[in-house]
Amino acid sequence: MRLVVVGGQAAGMSAAARARRLWGGLEIQVLERGEWISFGRCGLPYYLEGRVGALEELAAHTPEYFRRERNIAVRTGVEVAAIAPARREVALAGGERIAYDRLVVAMGARPKGTGLPGGGLPQVFALHSARDAARLGEFLERRRPRRAVVVGAGYLGLEAAEALRTRGVSAVTILEAAADVLSRGDAELTRRVRAHLERFHIELRTGVEVRGIEPERVAGVPAEVVVLAAGFQPNTELAAQAGLELGPSGGIRVSDRMETNLAGVYAAGDCVEVPHLVTGRPVYRPLGTTASKTGRVAGANAAGERERFRGVAGTSILGCCGLGIALTGLSETQARQEGFDAAAVWIEALDKRRYFGGRLTGVGLVGDRRSGRLLGGTVLGEEEAALRINVIAAALSRQMHVEEFQHLDLAYAPPFAPVWDPLLIAAQQLVKLLH
């Protein structure tokens, strides 16, 4: 049996490794068009900032490691030009054809906005690959720009803005087409994040659509360097040409076993859509955690197991200028759009006892008036305090009601948390509102 995996990043390598553990005699070959595999793109802003010393540190493993330790053949620098399901083979750009019995498509995603007019100017950069980060770092070192524009107020955009300030760029402006940050539809979250950024001389402008980039400005804002961070779109063109169905989000449609509509073909990672744990509807959430988990399930099923992927709540966390920003589930606006009778609260409370340096942590919770279910949450605070988001995420995965959530037995000790954790205070306020 021959398993071919197209894509050698988080999803592809997770699929290959899982399949190998389950089936020692399986012949596995991974095809990756880049020079790196298992590369942690999420660490690129930290490399740019200087907190990661070398790009090599972001690569979890090398092709040689997988060949030696896992008996998995990994080829880098190869471009898959076509997938032929009827013949069960993939064609490479040079004309070579590789036969498979089972196939995992893990072709990832690419940045939006790179095709904008002016996107090819020398001062314009994406932050998606090791080469992107190296080029941008060299540009900052050589040119010493003073004014920068970041296009997009998502995870990458906020982290890139901090990295630019740390590297000495004195004026950084973030331009976001939507009215809010992090694609959340949350005005209170946006207000709080904007106020925090202003303390570090980062200007956030929302409702600004960038239609092109001029040599010295973007949407009227002076810029000596521009970072494109307007989100991602799935690489699905080859999959669609091969007959794989796409879902409403634009990602490849898969079952909970990561099966596509074609026999023997699985898909995983940033090129697929997955069910949302709160709504049950398919969504596109290109996150490293989701990629690794879907890849693991795809590899298991390609090896003959029957594992399932339940879905995601969209749980994510980032740090920006010392502020931890963590999200899961739905915002109030998103919940209403999904048909829930949503109610929301925001509170502030100390993350630990004051005499142990307790600081205010903001917690937002969203619930449904009809069912009483918890629908989502947000935590803003010190970076460690923001890890409270994992408690909310666990509650969402169990479809917990707010009444139950307010009685959770959370740990208390003065150096770590107060007697009444901010999560429980927020839940108590939300229960009152729901009633």
Q: How would you describe this protein?
A:
- The mean pLDDT is 97.
- The protein is globular.
- By secondary structure, the protein is an alpha/beta fold.
- It folds into three domains: 2-109 and 233-302, FAD/NAD(P)-binding domain; 124-230, FAD/NAD(P)-binding domain; 316-434, 3-Layer(bba) Sandwich (FAD/NAD(P)-binding domain).
- Helices cover 27% and strands 25% of the residues.
- Helix 1 (10-22) packs parallel to helix 8.
- It contains twelve helices and 24 strands.
- The termini are far apart.
CATH architecture of the largest domain: 3-Layer(bba) Sandwich
How big a fraction of the residues is strand? 15-25%
How many domain regions?
Answer: 3
Instruction: Order the strands across the largest sheet as they lie in space.
Output: 3-2-1-7-17
The total count of strands amounts to: 24
Largest sheet: 5 strands, parallel
Number of helices: 12
Report mean pLDDT, rounded to a whole number: 97
